[in-house]
Design goal:
This protein is an alpha+beta fold. It is about 20% helix and about 25% strand.
């Protein structure tokens, strides 16, 4: 079972009105293992990715640029970042700069680009 990190903010679920119903944060009781490079399965749904980026910005207020994958929102909702959303948000000109991985291959955190730096 993953370790969930408390974020003292409310979880705002993505309410898809489009054909795709996968949330940006999903419920899973096992750590997500990452293959390299991060998967970018299919074309990203722009509204879904925008919601994910908004959630990352909310979490940045709590954690800074290093955000854990497994979140406990206000001690109530426990879930993890969706692996596909992470993949689509990874890279230059995208929110995620790098991904932390445990020795067993499980993702532990993402590191966002510093908004104040010109290192992209």
């Amino acid at each position: 079972m993953p370790n969930y990190t408390d974020a003292h903010i409310d979880y705002i679920p993505w309410n898809p009105l489009a054909r795709r119903t996968t949330c940006t944060f999903v419920y899973d009781k096992k750590p997500t293992v990452i293959s390299w490079p991060p998967e970018k399965s299919g074309k990203p749904l722009e509204t879904r990715q925008a919601h994910f980026a908004d959630q990352l910005e909310s979490l940045r207020i709590v954690f800074g640029n290093c955000i854990p994958i497994h979140i406990s929102w206000n001690g109530d909702v426990k879930n993890q970042m969706d692996k596909g959303c992470i993949g689509h948000a990874f890279g230059t000109e995208l929110p995620i700069r790098s991904i932390g991985v445990a020795p067993d291959g499980a993702m532990t955190h993402v590191i966002l680009w510093d908004r104040n730096a010109d290192d992209r």
